[in-house]
Task: inverse folding
């Protein structure tokens, strides 16, 4: 099973952008297509997002140690922020799957994907915020609280016309991500290190310390 996952990974990563070699991706625009959709609230979720089909080029058989690891979050600070308020942050991948996770959901009333993150005055309180891609070559991170973020959505992958199991997060028809370690940076959620996930936007170059992966909606 693992071998076939790796094969699928190589295949998807090689061809997701162009639709070459029989791979095809399709945007899923309606929250009712997501796991745990509630007809009355028009909300699907909550669920985490997780590393799926991660590829480690230096490991035997490409095995990636963080395959299946789920989402966490951290806050960002900028010079012009109000000092006592959490105004923006980003979604991460936990460094140990026992660490505190961050849930996301699809909000059908607003047609947005949202994350349950710490925000507001003081130490902050958990609340739902729309997330998007910070469309800049050096980041591509999944952020909340940034006015210029690009919308994020889920995609279904087709391989030679056959749907591949799962829904994959992406933006502008791109579903390939790169992850790298936060090294010494720790999350405000649990003071643990994490992995930073970046969408591979056209301007992005993968760095030496990064691993390619897809990001799958858990339960899809
Ligand atoms: C969801 O809502 C629609 C319209 O209100 C209704 O037709 C449908 O039967 C509902 N589905 C479920 C599973 O409740
Ligand atoms: C990738 O493989 C190398 C060599 O086996 C290993 O040291 C490293 O921890 C792996 N990283 C991930 C994320 O799998």
Result:
């Amino acid at each position: 099973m693992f071998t076939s996952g790796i094969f699928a990974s190589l295949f998807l990563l090689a061809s997701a952008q162009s639709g070459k070699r029989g791979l095809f991706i399709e945007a899923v625009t309606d929250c009712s297509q997501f796991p745990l959709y509630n007809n009355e609230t028009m909300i699907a979720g909550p669920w985490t997002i997780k590393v799926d089909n991660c590829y480690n080029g230096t490991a035997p058989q490409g095995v990636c140690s963080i395959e299946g690891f789920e989402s966490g979050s951290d806050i960002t600070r900028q010079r012009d922020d109000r000092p006592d308020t959490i105004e923006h942050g980003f979604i991460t991948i936990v460094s140990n799957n026992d660490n505190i996770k961050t849930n996301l959901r699809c909000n059908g009333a607003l047609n947005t994907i949202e994350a349950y993150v710490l925000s507001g005055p003081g130490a902050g309180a958990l609340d739902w915020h729309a997330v998007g891609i910070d469309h800049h070559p050096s980041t591509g991170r999944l952020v909340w609280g940034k006015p210029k973020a690009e919308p994020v959505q889920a995609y279904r992958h087709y391989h030679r016309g056959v749907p591949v199991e799962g829904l994959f997060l992406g933006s502008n028809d791109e579903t390939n991500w790169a992850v790298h370690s936060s090294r010494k940076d720790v999350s405000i959620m649990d003071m643990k290190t994490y992995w930073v996930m970046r969408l591979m936007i056209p301007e992005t170059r993968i760095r030496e310390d990064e691993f390619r992966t897809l990001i799958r909606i858990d339960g899809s």
In short: The two ends are 18 Å apart (CA to CA). The pocket of 2-acetamido-2-deoxy-beta-D-glucopyranose (ligand 1) is lined by residues 39 (CB under 6 Å). The CA atoms of residues 12 and 77 lie 35 Å apart. The first strand starts at residue 23 and ends at 28.
